[in-house]
Amino acid sequence: MHQQLFEKVDQYITGLFVETDPCLAAIERSIIENDIPSISISPTQGKLLHLLAKLCHAKNILELGTLAGYSTVWMARALPENGHLLTLESNEKHAAVAKENFIRCGLADRITIKTGNAIETLPALVGSKAGPFDMIFIDADKPPYTAYFQWALQVSRPGTLIIADNVIREGKVLDTGDHDERVMGVRRFNDYLSQCKQVTATIFQTVGAKEHDGMAMAIVK
């Protein structure tokens, strides 16, 4: 019953604040048509990322985990005309679908997608002195979340906003006996984040169409 209520409230909020959008609808269809996991953020979460990008006046955004580009488009639309978003995706099929979606949405000139394992791509970014990025969104595979965050810090500046999704896992992070690699990965990350002196951070719970989860938010000192 609670989940049904959460979903209805999410639909209510979406109806109020998220306009019908052919581009985003096309991305959602591409996920189904290409048999891509339906794990994109919700429309209300997309609007939240859009607002956060606006609030931090982001001109340079980094995303870890493109999937079909749903969250990417939400953030890219918040960029100024001279802004740019770099997104990293390990799956070549997902990257190809995302590229088509960026073209369809008229954002191909503002988005660069790099294919490959982020653990290998991120050191190359640091080595090439990429960034600093104004906003970084981490929504990739969960076991290396801590490593992703540590690399993200190296392409940040004071004031950079770093967001990490899916860090509560329906409350499973409370169960120390849960040995699911995704749960253990975000639990390690949460513990690390709480002790990281380089940022001011917190985690807030989320409920809605994507059930019970949470996002970590950190600002680099």
Query: What's the overall geometry?
Result: globular
How large is the radius of gyration?
A: 17 Å
Rounded average pLDDT: 96
Whole-Å distance between the termini?
42 Å
Decide which structural class fits the backbone: alpha/beta
Per the CATH scheme, the topology name is Rossmann fold
Strand order of the largest sheet: 3-2-1-4-5-7-6
Percentage of residues assigned to helices? 40-55%
Helices and strands, in N-to-C order? HHHEHEHEHEHEHEE
**Uncertain regions: pLDDT < 50 for 5+ in a row?**
none
How many strands in all?
7
Number of helical segments with 4 or more residues: 8
Q: Tell me the CATH architecture.
A: 3-Layer(aba) Sandwich
The CATH class label is Alpha Beta
Look at the structure and name the CATH superfamily. Vaccinia Virus protein VP39
Our estimate of the beta-strand percent is 15-25%
Number of spatially distinct domains: 1
Report on the structure:
It is built from 8 helices and 7 strands; from the N terminus they run H-H-H-E-H-E-H-E-H-E-H-E-H-E-E. With 221 residues, the protein is α/β, with parallel strands linked by helices. It has a single domain, classed as Vaccinia Virus protein VP39 (Rossmann fold). The protein has a 7-stranded mixed sheet with strand order 3-2-1-4-5-7-6, sandwiched between helices. The radius of gyration is 17 Å and the shape is globular.
How are the secondary structure elements laid out?
Blueprint: H1 2-17, H2 22-33, H3 43-55, E1 60-64, H4 70-76, E2 84-89, H5 92-104, E3 111-115, H6 118-127, E4 135-138, H7 145-154, E5 161-165, H8 181-195, E6 199-206, E7 213-220
Parallel strand pairs: 1-2, 1-4, 2-3, 4-5
Antiparallel strand pairs: 5-7, 6-7
Helix pairs in contact: 2-5, 3-4, 6-7, 7-8
